[in-house]
Every structure is written in C-alpha cells, then in structure tokens.
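Page 42, continued from yesterday. The earlier attempt failed because a stray header line got pasted into the input along with the sequence. Redoing it now with the clean sequence only.
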Amino acid sequence: MAFQSGEEAIGSGVTTVNVTYPVAFGAAPDFVIAVVQNLTDDPQLSLKAQVTSSSSTDFEVELSATTDSANYELAWIAGDTALVFSAITKLGTRITDLPAPSRELKPQDRIAVVQNGATNSVPFRDFESAFALKQESPPSASTDAGRISSVAYDADNAYLHVGDRWLRIARTGHPTDWNIPGVNSTKPAQGGTVALADTDTDVSVVYPVAFPSDGAAPVITFTLSNTVDVSPTAIYGFVTASSLSGFTVKFSTAIDADNWKLNWHAVQY
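This time it went through. Structure tokens are written below.
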C-alpha cells in the first residue's frame, strides 16, 4: 500500500467533511492524518479535524466547530503508516508540501541495479522502471492501452508494455497484426501480410524495423493465399532480392484478382 495526499475545500456552516481518494486503496489505509488550514489572513476559527470513519475509497472527519466562512480547506495524507511518516519526515511537518496526486503515488527513490556482463555497470532506476507490473488482462493487439513495464500472459504468449505499445515476447511476430502465427525464435524476427493487386507481377516488402546491421540478411518464408475465389489460379513466387531493410518476391504469373495476399516471416540467424 502506498500513500495519497491532497486538499479538500471546506464550505461555510459545515461540521463534517468527506474526502474521496483519487484512486481507491486495496483496503482501508493504515493511517489517515487530516489538518484544517486557513486560506486567508482574516481572523478565523482554530479548527481541529477528527477522523470518524475510513474505508478503501474515502474517509470522513468531524470538525471541532461549525465553519464561519468558506476560507478553510482540509489538508490530508493517507496510506501505509511507514510511508506516511517517511514522507512527512522528508518534507517536514507541512502536509501541504506533498504533491497532489492524480493517481496512487509510488516512492520515487532511485535504486542501484548491478549488471554483470563484458563490463560491470551500476545503473540507477526508479521503482516504476525497475519492477515489472502484472497486467490482469492480456492485450488483444499491440496498440491496447497499458503501463510501461507491465507484464501480461495467457496460455500461449507473454507480453511486455514498453511505453507506447505491447511487445509479444514469447512468440515474435508482426508488432500490430497478432492474427499471424508467431515465429518461435530468440533471434530478431518480423512478420506481416501484404494485400496484392490485380496484374501485380512482383511485390516489394519493407520491414517495419530494419534488421541489425551486424547480422546477415534474414531468412524469408512466405505463402500466397486466396480464400475468396472458388478456384483460384495456381500462383507461386520466389525471392529475387533481400536486404536488412526488405525483400522482393516475383510471381510465376501476374496476379489475376484483388483477393490475393502475401503472408511472410523473416528471421535473422
């Protein structure tokens, strides 16, 4: 459990204040501190706030007297006892110095991560990037919403969110069209589908991302499919050019309808 904090406006003529957390806690927070503060220099009441109820979604306080104006607000912090007091200790005793979150806060202390390899290094990361976050529902496409470092998995695949998209890391395939069977490989791999047009005699494919320059030209496999026409013409193809950025396939005869597709995979060994 982390902590949340904020300020809640207090109206005139009230004796109780209810605060709803920006993000619900998993359970009622261990600790809630609430302090009434004055917003102007006018003579005002010295009010105390007593927490009378607390749940995972909100808490309520009773004021020591009825407010005589709307020039008051309730500054509060709630969450794990250790984190609450740690935050107050770091910032002094002014609760209002804490950032007003739009979502549940996490400690932003940076931690050292030792990496052993050809050379040892000690990079520093914050908690958000250092730990993988479990995602309850696996994505159906790479463009589904997610949080950076979130991990999801189903019976066939594991997925990692990298900030702007999901990567399928157990089976590698085309980054957006996951209906294409994946390539079981730990090597760089890509795949995709290209719609062919009537009278096409060849097709050139440009990889979404060029393959690493320190490797050989990728090995390409492809199929020609036509699932619309009842008796499609027998057409086959062969690769006539291949590089790290794409390849070209020439057909045995010109495409005779707009119902043909080229399904391809490329793996760099």
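Notes: The CA atoms of residues 151 and 160 lie 5 Å apart.
Reminder to self: strip header lines before submitting.
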